[in-house]
Amino acid sequence: MAEIRAREITKTFADGTCVLDRVSFHARPGRVLTLLGPSGCGKSTLLRIVAGLDHATSGTLELDGAPLDGVPAGKRGAGFVFQNYALYPHLTVAGNLSLALETQRVAREEIGSRVRETAELLGIGGLLHRRPAQLSGGQQQRVALGRALVRRPRFYLLDEPLSNLDALLRESMRAELKALFARVGATVIYVTHDQTEAMSLSDDLIVMRAGRVLQCGSPLEVYRRPADAFVATFVGSPRMTLWHGRREGPALACRGVRVPLPDGLGGPVEMSVGIRPEDAELSREPVDGAWPAERVVVEPLGASALVTVRVGEEEARVLTAPTPWPDDLWLRFPADRLHWYDAGTGARIEPVGDGAARA
Amino acid sequence: MSPASPRAGRRAGIALLRGAAVAVVLAWSLAPAIWQALTALKPDAQITHIPTIYLPHPPVWLHVAALWERKPFGLYLANSAWIAGWATLLCLAVAAPAAAALARMPGRGREGLLLALLVVSLFPPILLLFPLYEGVRALGWINHPLALVLPNAALNLPLAVWVLESALRGLPVELDEAARLDGLGPVRRLWRIHLPLALPALATTAVLVFIFCWNEFMLALTFMTRDPSKTVTAGIATVSGASLYEIPWGQLSAAIVIATLPLMVLVLLFQRGIVSGLTRGALKG
User: Within 10 Å of residue A182's Cβ, how many Cβ atoms?
Assistant: First the structure.
């Protein structure tokens, strides 16, 4: 099982735009590392650099301690899955799977058995003689995966592999991928802009924005303690509520509502406070520390409901029981569930002695 | 029935008009070829007869036969096929890798090179005749097929590169990248990925180049001085009558029709191939 280390990878285009700014990561052997970020954050470029399809301006890449610079794409031992699959349209499924093995001069009998084995594993054994145009999107996706698998690569690189599938298929493929990764015991670098996918698939998660790494850690660490205001709103669904305000005495004054600050919280005058919808609380009767709120919209999700309420001029999303809620109700933010950020830099501000206990 | 009839009547009228228009265009473009074919089948007296005799009665094969009796016309055809065939192969063999490389070049460089190719092809070929003749003579290639194969391949190179480049540029870059990751070098990518996918364009280019080579006249007339080496275009030019003052219209017509037939067959054959190639492509990912 391979491990990949990237150090200070920087990529600058000729016109001076910087798409990757000193990005480092460590893809651990047998683990799934996810690069998560909005489109244009450089995650795909980073993946292409690891694959050898693109070159970094500076920085180093190591595969099991050996530098990868100058090693051509075909010799790095990567199994790559493209977002749009990039299947060879003139070749059958079997031809698509076997091309890499043919160039590696694998014996013909072995090619046959490996192609069949891979196709069986992915449930496309009956499609070996079809051409890509005769396959459904989900089947093409499996062939694309198969083309990576059949080579028995040292590591896998997947570039938004599920983004072209419809929602239902995406969910079942997600689970299947996770089982597959575990079964093959592979080192995987997985690129996605879908935070649900990232949460469910990864052992390690890297959140990127505008060519920079904002946070890396396990998915739950990132979810529980987002290191950055952007990460806070990007990771987690439904999105975290984030209010901006100014410190006034013992509270943060937002628009029409004052949120009490924890004792001894440092940080600048301009700050943001955030809370996940599942951590905020609604009630019909006034409770201690609750604000009077006005119901704006209720989105029933089945097992729960997402209620948007207005407090002062701020709005908050609350994930709560799917019961009918009155127009006027009470909103409470439990103090130990709040996330504090520097409104200027977006950096997390940890209440003294509190964060460590929870993490 | 009756409420629909005015509309149906108008539709029938439009169909009729359209049919008539097609007929006029067809007659306009086919008339010279048909006239040529009819002339080839008329006895000499009917060709120049006034008032004009339209249909040969009876059709005669004597002009066709005369082509083979007086001249090695079969050899001309064979020479043309041999030379045009090799020139086409050579041209494509050089153009395909060049086009593949150009297709994946960044914008500026590609455009510059393509324009340079176009400019070269704009020179009137007559300018090349004298230097080429000197070269061919120095190499001792007068009456040798190579004297026509090489210049024909070279002269058609810009066209072939242009057509193939635009076809190859249309292929998704991801296919190149997938092939690179599968360990295919540039030559194998060309052979296993690019060319199979560009097969329709390749066939079209081959047909075009072959036609141009087949029809090439100036170089053939200059370099091929002996009868057994002549191509069909040069051969037709030397078809002569029994005396200096007689123009053998019948034989000329027969020669032209026969020289055109192989091209027609070729185009019809490849047209089928091109269509099936297109329907097979299916590049949707």
Answer: 11
pTM listed for this prediction? 0.83
The reply to whether B234 falls in a domain is: yes
Please answer yes or no on whether A74 and B182 come within 8 Å at the CB atom: yes
- Both tokens of A236, joined, read 């987690």
Does the CB of B279 have a partner CB in chain A at under 8 Å?
Answer: no
Structural domain count of chain B: 1
- What is the tens place of the pLDDT at every residue in A156-199? 999 999 998 888 888 889 999 999 999 888 899 999 999 999 99
Pick B181's closest partner by Cβ from A78, A90, A140: A78
Q: What's the burial of A206, exposed, middle or buried (CB within 10 Å: 0-12/13-18/19+)?
A: buried
Q: How far is A221 from chain B (nearest CA, A)?
A: 34
> What is the rounded CA–CA span in Å between residue A44 and residue A40?
8
Top CATH class, A4-224: alpha beta
Residue A73 in 3-state DSSP? helix
Q: What share of chain A is helix, strand, coil (3-state, %, to 5)?
A: 30, 35, 40
CATH of the domain at B78: 1.10.3720.10
Question: In chain A, what are the domain boundaries?
Answer: 4-224, 238-358
CATH of domain A238-358: 2.40.50.140
B177 to chain A: closest CA residue: A53
Non-local (6+) Cβ contacts of A59 within 8 A are: A6, A7, A8, A9, A10, A22, A23, A24
CB contact under 8 A, B172 and A84: yes
Write out chain B residues lying below 8 Å of A165, CB-based.
none
Nearest beta carbon to residue B197 from set A90, A99, A147: A90
pLDDT digits (tens, 9 = 90+) for A68-119: 988 999 899 999 999 999 999 999 999 999 999 999 889 999 999 999 999 9
B70-111, pLDDT tens digit by residue? 888 999 999 999 999 999 999 999 999 999 999 998 878 899
Cα radius of gyration rounded to whole Å, chain B: 25
Domain span holding position B102: 71-238
Average pLDDT, stretch B118-142?
A: 90
Instruction: Count interface pairs A-B at CB distance under 8 A.
Output: 70
End-to-end CA gap in chain A: 30
Residue A302 in contact with partner chain B when CB distance is under 8 A:
no
Q: Tell me whether residue B256 is in a domain.
A: no
As for the ipTM of the complex, it is 0.84
